[in-house]
Amino acid sequence: MYHRAAMTNVNDPDLVPEFVQLQTKHQQRVFSFILTLVPHWPDAEEILQETNMVLWRKQKQYEPGTDFVRWANQVAYFEVLKHRKRQQGHVKQFSEAFIEDVAEEAFKLSGPLQAQRDALAACLEKLPVKDRALVSHRYLEGATTKTVAASVGRSVEAVYKSLQRIRGALLGCIRRTVVAEEGA
Amino acid sequence: MNEPNPVQLEVEALCGELIDGHITNEQRQRLEKLVQSDTVAKRTYIEFFNLHAALYRYNSTHVALPNTPNQASGDAGSPILGFLGDVFRQGTDFLSRSFVLTLLVAIGLPGLVLLIFVLDMSRQVVVPAPEPHVAVAPVHVTPAPATVARITNLHRCVWKEGSTQATVGAKLSTGQTLELKEGLVELAFADGAKVILRGPATFDTINVKRGFLHVGSLVANVPKGAEGFAVATPTAEMIDLGTEFGVSVDAAGVCEAHVFAGQIEVGVHESEKDAPGEFEFLTVGQGTRIEKTEAGAVRTETIVSAPRNFVRRIAPDTIAGLPEPTVVFRHQGDRDPTTEGWEHYLQKDISIPVTNVNASPTPKDQAPAWFLNDSSKEIGIHYRKTRLPRSLVDEAKEKGWVMRARVKVAGRDSAGKLLAFYSYWLKGCKWALRIGVGKDGNQCLTLDGKSSLGENRTVDLPNSRDAYVDYEVRYYPETHDADVYVNGKLLATGYYMPCRLGAMLHFGTFQEYECEASFARIEWGIIRQD
């Protein structure tokens, strides 16, 4: 059984520590993959939880030394499909062809995307303080452009445009940083 | 990479609309078309959401007051305490909510100690050095973990030792496990679904529209607007499409889904691939059984829905506060039932002369009742109503009905025999109060048919010797069964007995045994709550 099997595996000293380390280390990469396919934060979190449960249950199927992220993303992909099935008819979704297409590309880009995440901190530092503050407001849990506009006393349109500009700047900076590091 | 090209800018703008929830249908279609037809657009889309996720993550772990040290790392003294401190401080932080809670669900308490140890190690071994501090305001005050459900009712509940001892009103958060030894728990999920969990059971609240049943049984009632509520089990997942359904998982892992109303979708996990298996729609009256074979394959079998195998509501412990019926038929006190519209009838062989039975008011010095003195083993004294108006029967079946009786029975025959009765027969089912006297002289009640007590069970009624006992049977249309109360307290739920004849109401003494029975009150009424 799901729960009991997991508890049995916990008692396997050879397997569990390494597995938990891997799962901990790569949470962000898996989550990012899920969010790309289901661009709705609460749904993506739910799918991540379900993915973690499946990974935990199937940890003995993982062969140490192989690509953990690829395996985890494959599991996540199936969880995304299940989630889409559940949501069918209730919310607007991208087409299945779109999901397949994006997932395939995201599988391939797993390494470069990690490099981009690594470059984020340095790029954030390069932003003007005002822009960093806006990002900080926008990426609080539950925030939207509308709530940010209200809290900083600006129009929604102005905040939207600022955020669009800031994200564009960050993406540009990140891309440049990664290219520079690859060339170094 | 150089300056962004127009495609990149357009994709970024559309993604911005998407994450803010403002994207129009036309924009969504445009985004789909761009991403699928243009490699740069596709990569931009993926990079955008990679950034989006990373910014949330970064913000939740790096935000601090301007020019102050980063507060998000653990306590300096103890890495383990530091980790726990982080978890509590960042209650809904990405790691603590999505990962740690999920693992807690998966591994249970024994694994927790190991998990803390391993995560503590992982902080030292695999987590990179602290990232640069970004001095921006304001301080991120993270709200407490979200409540996904509440306990709204408990019935004779016994929790497993060492598990959550939840009470009515308790808030349940993501990943919380309920381990029920026996009894019933009613949960109200924040999204609107109601679940009645029947022990023994182990159940996790995953989120506002999803739970995980490891073992046990439950009934989910999902009102309009809360469609999409799902119950996952080790072998399958049941997704509601606006309905009422039951799910059970036995100790061997065999899972059953039964639809009582509406429709559900059942997705069977394919054991090894973990891919979504075939989805099957089930409607009212249908069910499915899912089990794993020894080889690890999943086998499904279509079954007929069996609502009576599930508890679909929690009965109140007492009759206090329950809706009063509009009494339609009654016998009151020492009145002759024939003057109240009841038909008198002797159950006997036609050749047997009528001797040793009589019916009369109780003596003046006693509580008023209609007294049946049945000293014959061959005659039963009955009062009945056999031609109940169809409109009344239909109305009662639709709205619910109540039968009440105040009866005292004394035995002249050997103990344990059924002596007197009050019953309501409906085509298909009947409900009968069958009263006898036990060895100690106390009265006893037999519920023929099925109930929460089991099948054809007899219950002793303490301190009932020479005393009137109040009985109440309450019928609920949605489950087509009844709760039985004795002296105002709940005795049994889910009571019914299959029967071909109907509709009829009658009370009296049994033919085979001798007794004295006093009927102080007989009532049958419809619950009209308008």
Write a concise keyword list for the protein shown above.
heterodimer; A: 184 residues; mainly alpha; Rna Polymerase Sigma Factor, Chain: A; Arc Repressor Mutant, subunit A; 2 domains; 10 helices; 78% helix; 0% strand; globular; disordered N terminus; B: 530 residues; alpha+beta; Jelly Rolls; 3 domains; 13-stranded mixed β-sheet; 20% helix; elongated
Could you describe the 3D structure shown?
The complex is a heterodimer of chains A (184) and B (530). Chain A has 184 residues and is mainly alpha-helical. Chain A is 78% helix and 0% strand. Chain A is built from ten helices and no strands. In chain A, helix 4 packs across helix 5, helix 7 packs across helix 10 and helix 9 packs across helix 10 (156-183). The model of chain A is unreliable at 1-15 (pLDDT under 50). Chain B has 530 residues and is α+β, with helices and mostly antiparallel strands. Chain B folds into three domains: 79-129, no CATH class; 147-309, Jelly Rolls; 326-526, Jelly Rolls, CATH 2.60.120.200. In chain B, 20% of the residues lie in helices and 43% in strands. Chain B has helices at residues 6-19, 25-37, 39-62, 79-89, 94-125, 390-399; strands spanning 63-64, 134-135, 147-159, 171-173, 176-189, 194-207, 210-221, 230-232, 236-240, 244-249, 255-261, 263-269, 276-283, 286-292, 298-304, 326-332, 343-347, 357-361, 370-374, 380-385, 401-411, 418-426, 428-437, 443-451, 454-460, 469-476, 481-486, 489-495, 497-499, 504-509, 515-526. In chain B, helix 2 packs across helix 3. The longest helix of chain B is centred in the N-terminal third of the chain and has 32 residues, at 94-125. Chain B starts with 5 loop residues before the first helix and ends with a strand. Classes of the chains: A mainly alpha (184), B alpha+beta (530).
